[in-house]
Design brief:
four-stranded antiparallel β-sheet; single chain; mainly beta; six-stranded antiparallel β-sheet; about 170 residues; about 5% helix; Immunoglobulin-like
Length: about 170
């Protein structure tokens, strides 16, 4: 899961969160979007307060600018929260979203996830924020008891029961 915070400024408009994921990270969905009015957290509603493009299940593919996905706020959002935005009561928006690591992901190498925000009438762009996601290999060494490798040892990770499987209690 990933989480990004948008610091809301008075007069805010046309906020669009852009996300670019490494090819081995598959965008799943936006989980929670919350707006903070002081200490009060408001859950924002997809389709009503914000729109995600593309929607992975119904409309997969990249937006025109090559991002993995974009989250933009609706006119209804700005209308509902305009006073709170302009008076500085709505100070931040937090977006939580999910991705799945592909089966071909590299081991012990970074997979970058980059985000930035565009805003205002001129689509001003913020600095990019970048994170790195890693997968790690699990080294397994089967030995005879004195650090001597056990020749021909094989391991299987499975959810299926194997024939003649011995169960431990």
């Amino acid at each position: 899961s990933y989480e990004i915070t948008i610091n809301v400024k008075p007069g805010a408009k046309n906020y669009v969160l852009h996300d670019i994921m490494n090819d081995n990270l598959n965008f799943g969905m936006v989980g929670h979007v919350t707006g903070f009015r002081g200490d009060v957290m408001n859950t924002l509603r997809g389709g009503e307060d914000y729109i995600v493009k593309p929607t992975p299940l119904t409309n997969p593919g990249n937006p025109e600018d090559g991002c993995t996905f974009e989250l933009s706020f609706t006119d209804a959002f700005y209308k509902k929260y305009r006073e709170d935005i302009d008076t500085g009561k709505l100070t931040k928006i937090t977006v939580e979203y999910y991705a799945q690591v592909s089966k071909d992901a590299p081991i012990n190498k970074p997979m970058k996830n980059t985000t930035y925000l565009t805003y205002g009438d001129k689509n001003t762009k913020t600095e990019k924020s970048e994170t790195e996601t890693y997968t790690y290999g699990i080294p397994v060494f089967k030995y005879t008891g004195i650090d001597t490798a056990l020749a021909g040892a094989k391991f299987i990770l499975s959810t299926d029961e194997l024939p003649n499987e011995k169960k431990c209690n």
